[in-house]
Amino acid sequence: MWDLLIRRARLATMQPGAPGAAAVEPGPSALAVEGGRIAWIGGDQAVPAGVGTPLELDAEGRLLTPGLVDCHTHLVHAGGRAAEWEARLGGATYQELAAQGGGILSTVRATREAAGGAGGVDRLVSESRPRLEALLATGVTTVEVKSGYGLDEPTELAMLAAARRLGRLLPVSVQATFLGAHAVPPEFAGRPDAYLDLLVNLLSAAAAAGAVAVDGYCEAGAFTAAQLDQLFAAATREGLRVKLHAGQFTDQGGAELVARHHGLSADHLEHLSPAGVAALAAAGAVAVLLPGASLTLRDPARPPVAALRAAGVPMAVATDCNPGTSPLTSLTAAMSLACSLYGLTPAEALAGATRVGAKALGLADRGQLTVGRRADLCLWRAEGAADLCQSIGAPPLAARLVEGRLVHA
Ligand code: NIG
Ligand code: FE
User: Fold this and answer.
1) CA distance 10 to 26
2) Is residue 23 pLDDT above 70, yes or no?
3) Cα–chain center distance at 353
4) Which end of the chain has the smaller Cβ count within 10 Å, N or C?
5) Which residues surround ligand 1 with Cβ inside 6 Å?
6) pTM of this prediction?
7) What are phi and psi of 243, to 5 degrees?
8) Residue 167 has pLDDT above 60, yes or no
9) Which helix (H) or strand (E) holds 38?
10) Exposed, middle or buried: residue 271 (CB in 10 Å: 0-12, 13-18, 19+)?
């Protein structure tokens, strides 16, 4: 007995090479769910007689995709940075503002203040919840959430606790990442190696607080590849997977660093050499593209999409939701920007927010519609990937299901 049967849908299975793979040609039209997993996929005429179901949903020809995966966010934090954005519109640069103690460190001050004292995790949760709710309304069923605005033990752990609590409060699967190496905190100014020692010692507590991956910021003014090499080696011993902010403003060899540590993904990549592309391809790592940051920073640099495509590097698309460089709470808008700004095809953008987004998190149980995978599903008022990716405003979401449960209709 199935729990749910969806009929008369247009399935974008996102299975490489299969019919309906990219929502451009007609594929199967019916899907059954049992125990939170996909139990059967086929044509409407092929639904086996005799398998009962208490719930049948007529999709009326709409597009059915895997639930969206936002594989790169900083959505847990306190405070905003609109004044910095306004200053940048007036000609200031991100790096100048950061050097004056703004940028990441200004959100660190706000987040430490919110997280301190009794009820700190509650305050982080209530500040962050509306951002997550907005993301879910765009079809997100799995979200990655980074720490990195604490940069001290209590606040980093409070951020990870807030991420975990959000995953219990709202119908979404949360994957937490430890980003202690986001910036050198003021109390360690001029002593980055001492701060890195603290981070290495924090890894097991971060894992115990729910982090499944480690991330760092490999950039001039942040951390060098050599510094992050030590952190990533220790993190791998702790069982954490490696991700990296690489090549946002300058190429510091971040892609090669990810490849050396068998990392899941290198993210941003607006500055990436041919050797970096080859390293990602050889390592099977994902390139995570974050067009919201290019837009907000008004940065004309672009990731080398044609080279990544030619080398077979899988490209994910994510929001980078953060208060400074990408105050974006819509994954469908990020998909649209990936097409308009970076030149992805709509089919690539949809794959980037489903199958490839899941790969960037090391999650093999979702991101495609195949029997046995999680029944995380989105039904869209759209016929194909182009309809879906063209919209920048209210997403054409008709229904969202998490593990087969209708959580948004
Ligand atoms: O992904 N570049 C580093 N991290 C963020 C920005 C964080 C911030 O400015 O608060 C990013 O763009
Ligand atoms: Fe980021």
Assistant:
1) 7
2) no
3) 8
4) N
5) 74, 103-104, 107, 217, 245, 248, 293, 320, 322-326
6) 0.97
7) -135, 160
8) yes
9) strand 37-42
10) buried
Of 383, 387, 380, nearest to 335 by C-alpha is: 387
Mutate to test the pocket of ligand 1, among 322, 326, 328 (most ligand atoms within 8 A of CB): 322
Task: Tell how far the Cα of 17 is from the centroid of ligand 2, in angstroms.
Answer: 31
- Please list all protein residues whose beta carbon sits less than 5 angstroms from ligand 2, which is an ion: 320
Distance 100 CA to ligand 1 centre (A): 16
Average pLDDT of 284-301?
A: 98
Tokens 């960037």, located at residue: 360
> Of the candidates 10, 62, 69, which has an alpha carbon nearest to the alpha carbon of residue 41?
10
CB contact at 8 A, 102 and 93: no
What is the CA 159 to chain-centroid distance, rounded?
A: 17
The separation between CA 26 and the C-alpha centre of its own chain, rounded to angstroms, equals 28
How many whole angstroms from 62 Cα to the centroid of ligand 1?
Answer: 36
State what percent of residues in the chain have pLDDT above 70. Answer: 98
Residue 94 CA: nearest ligand 1 atom is: 9
Per residue, the 3-state secondary structure of 202-247, as one string, reads HHHHHHHCCEEEEEEEECCCCECHHHHHHHHHHHHHCCCEEEEEEC
What is the pLDDT, as a whole number, of residue 340?
98
Q: Label residue 24 by pLDDT band (50, 70, 90).
A: very low
The structure tokens 């990870």 sit at 160
Nearest-10 Cα torsion for 378, 382, 385, 388 = -80
Residue 60 Cα to ligand 1 middle (Å): 42
Nearest atom in ligand 1 to the alpha carbon of residue 103 is: 9
| Cα 269 from chain centre | 15
CA distance 358 to 364: 7
Asked if residues 10 and 26 have their Cβ atoms less than 8 Å apart, the reply is yes
Give me 139's structure tokens: 């079809």
Contact present, 209 and 157 (Cβ < 8 Å):
yes
Q: Is 382 helix (H, G, I), strand (E, B) or coil?
A: coil
